[in-house]
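Quick start: what a row looks like.
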Amino acid sequence: MRLTAAAALAFTLPLALAACGESGASAPGAVSPGEAKALDEAAAMLDERRLPPEALPTGAQLGDAPGDAASAAPARD
């Protein structure tokens, strides 16, 4: 039985393409090393942009906020 060029190609092409796949299966949602580095850099940038301590409310100001449960009037039925 003699294989024609088309039959040989049809047999070897799927094998060659299967060898070109990823080296390892990654879990869904997994990030690449480059993505992990970018996420770390973004987190560091956000950490550097913290509000100064004087911009944060003090304990006395926390209860004065409108809509705060501590300062809201009790609900009537």
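That is the whole record. The radius of gyration is 31 Å. Residues 33-48 form the longest helix (16 residues).
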